[in-house]
Amino acid sequence: MRSPKPLSLTAYQWLMSLFHTQAPFVLRRRLERGKEDPVRFRERLGRTDIPRPSGTLIWLHGVSVGESLSVLPVIERLKTERPDVRFLLTTSTTTSAEILAKRLAALGDITHQYAPIDTPQAVAAFLDHWQPDLAIFIESDLWPNLIGALQKRGIKHALLSARITEKTYKGWMRLKDAITYTLSGFDLIMAQDKDSEARLKSLGDPVARHVAPQANLKTLGAPLEDDITTREALSAQIGARQVIVAASTHPTEDAYISIALETIIKSPDEPLLIIVPRHPIRAEDIRLDLEALGFTVAQRSKAEVITPDTHIYLADTLGELGVFFRLADVVIMAGSFSTGIGGHNPLEAMRLSKAVIFGSELYNWQAVYDDMLELGAGWKANSRDELRLIVEQLLANPEIIESANTLARRLARKDGDTLPMVWRCLEPLLPPAPAQDEAA
Predict the structure, then answer these.
(1) What DSSP assignment string belongs to 326-358?
(2) Which of 70, 222, 223, 300 has a 20 to 30 Å separation from 173 between CA atoms?
(3) Are 357 and 389 in contact (CB under 8 A)?
(4) Phi/psi at 249 (nearest 5 deg)?
(5) Do the record's keywords include Cell membrane (predicted)?
(6) pLDDT tens profile 401-416
(7) Whole-structure pTM value
């Protein structure tokens, strides 16, 4: 028997119920700042005009791009095992919706919606309409009213690739009863690393008894998509120059990396630096900063051509990272050179046989980066000088890059048993498959 619902959760539910009357105004302010979709605004309130597909429906939720992309291999495996099942995938950001559109069209039978805000009214409208048979949450986007409603309705729910950072855990300890109560209602929890698993189990038996073997979904996935026409056109502009790609940069990192590599890229026929910002909306600010530092910049969204005088190509578009990785001689993974980000997924580059250089802020991906260093599939730069020296050495010794790239590809493929294990854990939570004659 579960313990009584903590007063803090009851108070939260009451406050969010009151907030619901103000939610449309808050969402409209977010809409003005480009953080909501003007066409699909109602989905955040649990409303939609899209009908629920018939039959068994699995709902999967990942807050943004990384989480939602990481679950696509799971969906593909579920489609293979249970072709009768239909899928609903929710995210919370407009960027994720843009990037997912093409991927989901290729997979078929998957509906995308924006996740409802965590008011009792929006949650009820969402669940009344979609009535999922199983809900799967990815990583750590856990909303008390939403999860509580699933528990109250008896809808089975799982948490996959759970990532519990030390910062998150310390926050939990201030509301331990509430988080323990919330997590104890899950039917299955699979942590993405040993530290997250230990933190979950430390909450006691009500949570620990639902914790299954580890499964890091971000180690799965197919290589990022290519666009041969685009890549060949860019390659023709670049010519014989070597290419350095700085992927998923955040504020301060664009200038940090550019200044570190200034002596390498600021001369005729020297390597081209391609900067791919994590959020393309920052492009104009990035360009102004780089030009103030004396760099010549060409901007992709403006269809500007790369010339021999171009120092930096600002790749301010979505969904083309696979193209830029394939063009790269050297890859720098950003999100690790500034505080508060914790690094980004290096496996996207490694699946394309690209070893990476990274900084010291890695807590979101520490286990993967540790494996990279141990195997020799990447290089850590603790300062600008180290970053410059590493890039210089690699560009001068392509045989080192080739050897590390082979190791990177090998490391990216090491978790081949993860999907079968995830399926074995999820299968008991699904309704039985229809009989063959009924399915026909």
Answers:
(1) HH-SEEEE-SSSSTTT----THHHHTTT--EEE
(2) 70
(3) no
(4) -75, 150
(5) yes
(6) 999 999 999 888 776 6
(7) 0.75
